[in-house]
């Protein structure tokens, strides 16, 4: 090994080590920020390693150096721009877009090697079986990841509704047909013919659209984490294609982490991965079912003033955030309210459901942006036993994750899904624009309970008015 090869190996080893630490650190809220930095450093080192390897290769022409440097500069600029400009409420769409970019990168690498092989024609015809399989996997998974991620981003952004016919059984026949075409193309490529390459790209691209388009918003956290796993698998396959050990290891770690997270999210929703991928939108399934339907019979609404008076007398308050909080961008106003309560001696914590929002950890990121202390964020398993000793629960934009039907109604589509037991608290206030259903499309029995009061209005405005009322009561957050 020459100097550049030794240096490249050392850089890659350090990059893998830092990436592993980064992924491990993301499992805890307190260490997530630093873990993200470690992962960013790891990726920077990986790029540096490529430059070092290129320096030791005297056969690289000048125009290739131009594209390498230009691509690095453009990519760095776009990444910094997205990091600065994208709001936390748009983070799910951004993650979906990044997953798509990862899939497209792997796809382009595999296509480049397949169309413009670096080896001689004789060597290309006798290409190693592992390399052929790697190209096929990278093209197939990369293409599905790209189109599926773009569809997921468009659905989250509200740009792409699900057509009615995509909720029918006909979609299964379409996807099966696309899968068969992909398998035929794969067989052709493995047998040494490149005539099926374009057909594989097209069929797998449409398969990504066909699988993702019917999936409803309630299942989007699972879809995003699964697409993240796909991007890792595609990257690992691309690593075999170009002979990069670093890419193989990094892709495998990302793929495994994404798959584990997908399983965690499925457990949090009490749904199997098969039902998410092939069951379509949850709301569409429920629409034809009578369970959980009906009118509300015992709704109690109250004013902001009444809510403020109850909070003033409370000793223990639990906040349950949901996607409605993110839509209203009310996290900073909420933090002002909780600071006021904490200043008057009220114990305030946050109960976080694993699938609250539209991506794993969405609520954690949103509250971290508002400087909520990490120790106040409690996962569902920790928060549930504490609700009976809680004076007030403030539900902000959450719906299905606090629906008691999940525990007491076997006919409900939510039955068996782990939920937050907010009904066990002494008083529950639900801040909500109206009586619309959540993603499941069914009524929320919590709203009918005697200890629940509805505070109707936009979350940001209601919290702003609540802060004014608390200050008038002498609760200003100052000791």
SSE layout:
Layout: H1 3-25, H2 29-55, H3 62-85, H4 91-115, H5 121-125, H6 129-157, H7 170-190, H8 197-212, H9 220-242, H10 245-269, H11 273-278, H12 282-287, H13 304-313, E1 316-321, H14 323-328, H15 331-343, E2 347-352, H16 362-369, E3 377-379, H17 380-383, E4 392-396, H18 405-408, E5 427-432, E6 452-456, H19 459-472
Parallel strand pairs: 1-2, 1-4, 2-3, 4-5, 5-6
Helix pairs in contact: 1-2, 1-10, 4-6, 4-9, 6-7, 6-8, 6-9, 7-8, 9-10, 13-19, 15-19
Q: Number of domains in the coordinates?
A: 3
N-to-C SSE string, H for helix and E for strand: HHHHHHHHHHHHHEHHEHEHEHEEH
Helix content: 55-70%
The helix count comes to 19
Structural class: alpha/beta
Shape: globular
What is the average of the pLDDT values?
84
- Our Rg estimate from Cα atoms comes to 26 Å
Low-confidence stretches: 281-293
Strand content: 5-15%
The strand count comes to 6
Spatial strand sequence of the major β-sheet: 3-2-1-4-5-6
Could you walk me through the main structural features you see in this protein, from its secondary elements to its overall organization?
The longest helix has 29 residues, at 129-157. The protein has helices at residues 3-25, 29-55, 62-85, 91-115, 121-125, 129-157, 170-190, 197-212, 220-242, 245-269, 273-278, 282-287, 304-313, 323-328, 331-343, 362-369, 380-383, 405-408, 459-472, and strands at 316-321, 347-352, 377-379, 392-396, 427-432, 452-456. It is α/β, with parallel strands linked by helices. It folds into 3 domains: 1-85; 90-288, no CATH class; 304-472, TPP-binding domain (Rossmann fold). The chain is globular. It has a 6-stranded parallel beta sheet.
């Amino acid at each position: 090994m020459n100097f550049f090869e030794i240096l490249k190996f050392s850089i890659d080893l350090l990059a893998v080590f830092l990436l592993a630490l980064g992924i491990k650190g993301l499992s805890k809220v307190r260490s997530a920020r630093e873990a993200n930095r470690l992962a960013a450093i790891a990726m920077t080192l990986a790029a540096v390693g490529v430059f070092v390897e290129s320096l030791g290769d005297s056969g690289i022409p000048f125009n290739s150096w131009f594209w390498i440097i230009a691509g690095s500069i453009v990519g760095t600029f776009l990444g910094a721009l997205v990091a600065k400009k994208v709001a936390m409420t748009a983070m799910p769409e951004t993650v979906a877009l990044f997953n798509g970019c990862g899939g497209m990168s792997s796809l382009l690498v595999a296509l480049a090697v397949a169309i413009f092989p670096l080896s001689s024609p004789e060597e290309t015809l006798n290409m190693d079986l592992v390399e052929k399989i790697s190209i096929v996997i990278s093209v197939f998974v990369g293409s599905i990841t790209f189109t599926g991620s773009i569809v997921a981003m468009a659905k989250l952004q509200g740009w792409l509704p699900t057509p009615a016919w995509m909720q029918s059984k006909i979609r299964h026949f379409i996807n099966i047909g696309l899968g068969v075409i992909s398998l035929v193309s794969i067989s052709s490529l493995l047998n040494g013919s490149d005539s099926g390459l374009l057909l594989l790209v097209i069929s797998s691209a449409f398969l990504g659209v066909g699988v993702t388009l019917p999936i409803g918003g309630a299942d989007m956290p699972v879809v995003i984490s699964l697409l993240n796993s796909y991007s890792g698998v595609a990257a690992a396959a691309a690593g075999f294609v170009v002979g990069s050990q670093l890419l193989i290891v990094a892709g495998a770690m990302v793929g495994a982490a994404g798959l584990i997270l997908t399983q965690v999210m499925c457990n949090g929703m009490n749904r199997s991965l098969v039902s998410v991928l092939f069951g379509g939108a949850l709301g569409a399934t429920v629409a034809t079912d009578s369970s959980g339907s009906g009118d509300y019979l015992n709704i109690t609404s109250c004013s902001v003033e009444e809510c403020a008076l109850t909070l003033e007398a409370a000793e223990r308050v639990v906040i349950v955030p949901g996607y409605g909080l993110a839509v209203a961008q009310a996290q900073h106003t909420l933090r002002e309210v909780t600071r006021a309560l904490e200043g008057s001696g009220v114990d305030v914590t946050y109960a976080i459901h694993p699938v609250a929002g539209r991506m794993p950890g969405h609520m954690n990121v949103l509250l971290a942006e508002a400087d909520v202390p990490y120790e106040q964020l409690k996962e569902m398993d920790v928060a549930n036993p504490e609700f009976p000793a809680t004076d007030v629960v403030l539900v902000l934009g959450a719906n299905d994750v606090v629906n008691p039907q999940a525990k007491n109604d076997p006919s409900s589509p939510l039955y068996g899904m782990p939920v937050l037991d907010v009904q066990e608290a002494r008083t529950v206030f639900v801040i909500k624009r109206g009586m619309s259903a959540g993603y499941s499309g069914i009524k929320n029995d919590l709203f009918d309970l005697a200890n629940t009061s509805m505070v109707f209005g936009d979350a940001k405005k209601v919290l702003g008015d609540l802060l004014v009322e608390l200050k008038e009561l002498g609760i200003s957050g100052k000791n």
